[in-house]
Amino acid sequence: MLDNIRYEYYESVDSTNDRIKKRAHEGEQQGLVISAGMQTAGKGRIGRKWESPENDSIATSMLLLPDELSIEAVPTITVVAAMAVREAISQLYGIEGQIKWPNDIVFDGKKICGILTEMEMKDARPWFVVVGIGVNVHNRIFDEEIAYKATSVDLELEKNLSTAKTAHRLELTQKIWECFKKYYNIFITTQDMTGLKEEYERNLANIGKRVRIEARENSYEAIAKGIDSKGELIVEVQGKEKIIRTGEVSVRGIYGYT
Ligand code: BT5
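# biotinyl-5-AMP complex -> structure
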């Protein structure tokens, strides 16, 4: 169970995920959160870059030391974290994002958050897991290559005239981890999405939509149906159901077709 959350903040780091890994190697306990005002080498999945400019966004990572966690359950933690970010923004600011399976939060098809979960093994078992979350909070302009598909909490609040306030990074960071604790402790009892699937699917942008599955060997179109208990995406291809694992493919359709 995740219990005691402890926060540390730095002006600038390479990557909050890498900082957590270092601390894990030094014997740190579960529940440490490291956040930073900016990252000089923020990481996305599979070697991609994550932009976290100075004081505009949240870059925050948590150390988990789960007892007896199966390797298969580790990618599901990303799915759990996505729920937490969506819920935290909703609770604090009253705006409702959707989840783009597996790990993005989107508003009108634009990405506000990315999540990178990493793991290290010991004795053929997961030793520690790092959950890294990046949220665009005050960002108004983005690098050219992501400008068409990125948004921030402040930009979304401005669209919503009834909520004339700006977001607050510390408040949002703490709310995200508070929500994460709630969802993670539900997840960890079964090590799957049994207790969370219904809420996840309610907020899933892909559901019922046409998606393009881009696997290494081929690429095809399908209809997203929902998730299974492991958090894998269930799609329908030519009348047959197929399971898409996290990390296996890229799923397009929410940011437009390419
Ligand atoms: C992700 O990867 O979305 C995971 C991002 C995780 C970032 C956090 S920040 C704290 C912790 N420390 C780290 O070093 N990382 C984690 P992926 O699904 O691969 O998406 C990466 C892609 O998103 C890039 O190739 C860009 O196209 C786009 N992108 C980069 N920065 C963005 C931003 N600030 N907002 C929206 N999209 C962005």
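# post-check
The chain has a mean pLDDT of 91.
Residues 210-253 form a domain with the SH3 type barrels. fold (CATH 2.30.30.100).
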